[in-house]
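Sharing a chain and its predicted structure for anyone who wants a worked example. Both blocks are below, sequence first, tokens second.
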Amino acid sequence: PILLINEPMFISQGENSDLRYNFYYPRWVYDAYREMMLKIAREQNWHYFDFWDRIDPAEFTNSAVHMSPLGTHQLARLIGGTILDLQLP
């Protein structure tokens, strides 16, 4: 079985946050990517989990992709719980 996980990212607030999720990702591009991934995963019957917004912005460090130890722990629990729920071989 294939298990795909879209990792969490920092979602900023403030100036231009209506246009960009953060420094790296314009909203329209990232939203289109997520829609495309969901469509492909459904067509291919993949296990796809979109955790992109599941970690609090306070748990990111100096980058939109680097989490604090607590954020990393939270993500590990999400992934572990997902694997256990799926009962994959």
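Comments welcome. The first helix runs from residue 27 to 44.
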